[in-house]
Amino acid sequence: MALKGLLIDYSYCTGCHSCEIACQVEHGFAPDRWGIKIAEIGPWQIKGDKWQYSYIPAPTDQCDRCAKRAQEGKTPTCEHHCQAKCIEIGEIAELAAKMTRSHMVLYALR
After folding, report:
1. Interatomic CA distance for residues 15 and 35, integer angstroms
2. pLDDT score for 2
3. Has domain 4-109 been given CATH number 3.40.630.40?
4. pLDDT tens, 69-100?
5. With left for phi above 0 and alpha for psi between -120 and 50, is residue 57 left, alpha or beta?
6. Greatest C-alpha distance within the chain
7. Domain coordinates in residue numbering, the chain
C-alpha cells in the first residue's frame, strides 16, 4: 500500500475554515478539536505595499483521512468542502510531482 499524503497549495487558501468545520461535523469533534486546523500567519507589513498574511491548513493527529468516507469511495471531507480547492489527498509520490510552486506543503499521513 502506497503512502498517502495531503497536498496544500496555501497561496490559494482564504482562511474560510470550511475544512475545519466539515471535519468537525464529519467526526463529531468538540468545538475545540480538529482533524485539520488553519494556522494564520500575519498580518504584518514587509515593505511598502507588501504584507505577510497567509493561512496554512495543517492536519492534526486526529486526521484519519476520513477512513469511513474513503471506504464509501468518497473524497475526504476537508478536500470536498475546500472552497478554494487547494487541498488534495492522494498517493504521496503523485502529490510530490504536483509541487510546482513555492507556497505548497506536502504532509505524509499515517
Report:
1. 16
2. 76
3. no
4. 999 999 999 999 999 999 999 999 999 999 99
5. beta
6. 50
7. 4-109
Q: Which residues pair with 6 in a beta bridge?
A: 89, 107
Distance CA 73, CA 16 (A): 26
pTM over 0.85: yes
Helix (H) or strand (E) holding 59: strand 50-59
**Residues 6 or more apart from 83 whose CB is under 8 A from it?**
14, 16, 18
Q: Is 29 exposed, middle or buried (0-12, 13-18, 19+ CB in 10 A)?
A: middle
CA nearest 102: which of 9, 6, 39? Answer: 9
Centroid of chain to Cα 100: 17
